[in-house]
What does this fold into?
Amino acid sequence: MPKASLSEEVSPHDPQDSSGFNLSDWALHHRSLVWFLLIISMIAGTLSYMRLGREEDPNFAIKVMVISASLPGATIEDTLNQVTKRVETKLEELDRLKFTRSVTMPGIAVVYVELEDSVRGDDVGETWQRLRFMMNDIRPEFPREFQGFAFNDDFGDVYGNIYAFTSDGFSKREMHDRVEDIRKQVQALPDAGKTVLLGVQKEEIHLEFSTARLASLGLNQNQVIQSLATQNAIAPSGVIQTGAEQVLVRVSGQFYNASAIADVNLRVGDRFFNLADVARVRRGYQDPPEQVFRYKGQEAIGLQIGMRQGGNILAFGQEVDALMDKITRDLPVGITMVKFADQPHVVKEAVGHFVQALAEAVAIVLLVSFVSLGLRAGFVVTLTIPLVLAITFVIMDYLGITLQRISLGALIIALGLLVDDAMIAIETMIARLEAGDSLGRAASYAWSSIAFPMLSGTLVTVAGFIPIGLNSSMAGEFTFSLFVVIAVSLLVSWVVAVLFAPLLGVTFLTTKIARHSETPGRLRRGFQWLLLHAMRFKWATIIVTMALFATSVWGLRFVEQQFFPAPTAPSFWSM
It folds into this structure.
């Protein structure tokens, strides 16, 4: 049968079109526009895929804060009554507080605050700010010796690249200055986020008093320290007014190094003395240190590099590698830099696995479609896969969803579902062609016969993931992109099936399709026999179905309870 023109395929007086608007028929009458939309969708999808951020895991808010308070010299009972109880009592006024847990030590109180699961991630930062205001409100109630609060809510910081710097022949200060300069260069990168140094020891001035000398002069340590603090105070000195100008007068007693402290002359009462007469002044480091960083047993300084939220970890990793290669060439002999945490490599493998899964899905669909539908029909169904993914990438880019463990998992899950609508539409079109319909009538028949049943099935599938989308817990926030990506891809697959698939079918299919024999085959006869007996013995069918369901519920206990496989990449934790 020769291929008919569009005016011959779909007549304006066709009774098929009298039932109302037909989207598939509209697409056939506006081929140029639909082809334009198809090409633009593919181009936009490709650009969006290249622009999408790459991360290992999605961002989520950790709803825990640690409040530290210090009351030097207090006993456990004093710290508990004067600090811990007051903090916990005030925290009871906080909305959506889940619980508090405290640890009290002599002079130190640590309170852990956790919010309810219903608190959304966007509201956590505002809640922590309100908590800080609440602590400032009760600050006047504490004793005069109270030294204030320290708040820690940075538990969600992730550093994709970590470098270790070791040295041979360089002092700690020289190493710190060198690594700090490198940190500033990394911080200047456009996608750089938070950068932190590890293993940096704080420098201190140590005063080692001689008890014998203090006793011979009739002094004690507190008198010397108080006099030294007075000498080091920053105080306004005055202003000299000279006509139209003002000259600021500054008399500074600040100390800039250990020698300046040792040379200072102090006054206690009516007596003057040199600090070096009663104490040995030396520059050193905090002992014991707050943190120690070692690489292969050697003391080192670590540089943790984070990426801004929503960035592309692969592109950022390349920028960091290029910068670090340049820095390595300029490092002096004796300083070694080693990268031992490489998140971009992990993300690259994850994206590569998705591309591999996509290729496998396309190959499977090709094989099944070619075997069951034929070469042309299989080719049409296969074309819908990249089209659906392209439009999905555009929407993901608009919503700010990055390619990470959860969204990639959602795309892989959706790959097995998004071809169903297109396959049903093309199969229906082939059935109408076998019945003798023209290409136009066969292509538009899907809308009037199966479009809304397909939409209902799609919505039912999407509804199965609604509990993930509505879950307000931390796990729900972590997996929220799973619901969004699956819902978007399945709805897009329905649109592609009723808008683009008919046009692709008219373009690539032919009316020269052999009709099936009126006599059903052996497989069809067997299925028909089974279906008729299942309907005839309906109670037996119901009982068998319930028994199979009960067996599956019982067998679920033997299935490992794990949503996603545990990460295999090395992780580094710092407290």
